[in-house]
Amino acid sequence: MAVDRVRWGILATGGIAAAFTADLVDMADAEVVAVASRTDASAKAFAERFGIPKAYGDWASLAEDADVDIVYVATPHSAHRAAAGMCLEAGRHVLCEKAFTLNSGEAEELVALARRHDRFLMEAMWMYCNPVIRRLKALVDDGVIGDVRTVQADFGLAGPFPPSHRLRDPAQGGGALLDLGVYPVSFAQLLLGEPSDISARAVLSDEGVDLQTGALLSWESGALASVHCSIHGGTPVAASVTGSKGRIDIPDGFFFADRFVLHRDGREPEEFTAEPTHGPRNSLRHEAAEVMRALRAGETESPLVPLDGTLAVMRTLDTIRDRIGVRYPSEAQ
Predict the structure, then answer these.
(1) Predicted structure pTM score
(2) Dist CA 123 CA 84 (whole Å)
């Protein structure tokens, strides 16, 4: 159903939920009408902080609230299947944080639910909605650097994170890959699609999650992607795409890029930068705007973040985890 002013519900009250809500409340065509958490106290504190009229101490009440057009699911990814599924079953549209789910099986279940109920569903891969990344992809698709030969991308945090931290907890889908590695993998697949072969190595924690993972993705075209993620070593968080006629470098913060440099054979380097109207580089409003555009158009998925692409990324993450020997407690043995 097409909508005018989109009414949002926020499911979870952590840091990413706060960042997204802060952007939403500044958008004239968005209205945050409800928030839910596992406790009344957390929901009420969040509601007071952002001036949200309804606060629920359980997820089901938000899912059943007919005044909510779309729910933003911002729980840890171990709870995405349950939270997003509940909302889709209740008839809500859903924007779900990344990693989309723990594994591709759960992702397929959510996509099937959305399609069965004719509801909008999108992974919150804000990188794909970033205007600078969209410009980069357009240049690559137009053949400006020729045929893509290699992609390199990394995302590492220095840490250290104690064993009690969510990132070290297998029950919450901890480890570097699902929290951070999803970005380098998604960047590579944005440009090249799903790889035909995958190899990977990792350093695992005592709890059995990956502290550091490196993977080599390959395609039948001959293209290769080297991706790396870490929660015990800070990295440049840089990316580059090399083609037969040139190269594009994102020197830092590739997943929320505000600039890149195009190198073409026989030409001076060209720098492309974000427009002032794009807002701060960490703005989540481009993602929100795309969701609301799609809802008004009556679309059930976004062409910028298509569900088939999300499923393909989840399959790659599954394969990498299989290669490095990481399995979560909720997964069948």
Answers:
(1) 0.96
(2) 11
